[in-house]
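Give me the fold.
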Amino acid sequence: MAAIRTFVPRETAAVSVGADEIAVEIARVAKARGASIELIRNGSWGATWLEPLVEVEVDGKRIAYGNVTAADVADMFSAGFLEGGKHARRIGLVTEIPYLIDQDRWTFFRCGLIDPLSIDSFRRHKGFDAIEKAFEMGAKAVIEAVADAGLRGRGGAGFPTGIKWRTVADASADQKYIACNADDGDSSTFSDRLLMEGDPCCLIEGMLIAGFAVAASKGYIYLRSEYPLTRLILARALDNARESGWLGENIQGSGFDFDIELHLGAGSYVCGEETAMLESLEGKAGIVRYKPPLPTHEGLFGKPTVINNVVTLASVPNIINLGSERYASLGVNRSKGTLAFQLAGNIKRGGLVEKAFGITLRELIDDWGGGTASGRPVKAVQVGGQLGAYIPAEQLDTPLDYEAFVEIGAMIGHGGIVVFDDTV
């Protein structure tokens, strides 16, 4: 009899509320009852308000149980957990949870779905298909696809990614670099972490494509020190990619060489700024550089460097897989594609919501967030972190669009949304 697949997230938010203890208890109870299970530590689907979200696969379908505690496990088994039995914690099929299925999952579609540390699991869900396609298309066509998609930097500035890549590609140099900025410390931002913990190879593949497009052979991930679990998962994923031939020399016989080094920051918020990050990568104090020269001309170690944040790079593989037109059809005006909005603060259902640009703050807060946790009216919403603005309640119908936010003196930034009720 085949082992029954059960899923318990290994993701920072879930672990903080007991996911590790639940995994141990599931293994213990299954063994005591003589049940054969395969315990998979997946990433998070992003419905943080339901964590720890435990799943069991029955007849090829995954059934979710939310807000589980270790004390619930024995009772769940008695209620037929391994058959998807009824229990107070049972939510139902993952594919029928409105919070998840009503999103536009472009970048985060594998988060929660796969085993983050299994190359085979990644490959079964289109993993590394895009870099193989990129090899066939050629570097120039890859850059054109990214430009035509209208992808803009998701770190906050919103600079067109295609222009940045083309500038580095056109530069003459004996060495070029890809630098991934994974040091965003804005309040309520956790999309980078959730992706690196739930689908680290998606970031690796995005960096591979960027490296191939601009002829860079070395990449760096600058990770904030406050993410110890992310560091462990990402380091293991990089090792797995090397061992399976997706990083290193002559990748999959393509003739393309590319490797990635993981660099840990030291807790400086300033190093979220790209030039301060470069200074830190070079072993110097993380202080903002004067510009020009721009990093695309003289970046890391004085060489042409592409600097993108995690979500920007992770958005690229599906642009190559599904086409730039499909990506550009999402969103509004010059804000194309999707953004992973992160709901936090006084919110009933906090978590990650990936939607196309154009949705309003009110829709995110009411339809996904369920309103305030206190049940009181919203007074203001902080968007874009410390450098962003507090949006008053009367402006909640402003569409999430880079230019629309500039018009009201605000910025979308990294997509972090912190809600406050009328008692503050």
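The chain has three domains: 4-101, 119-329, 332-421.
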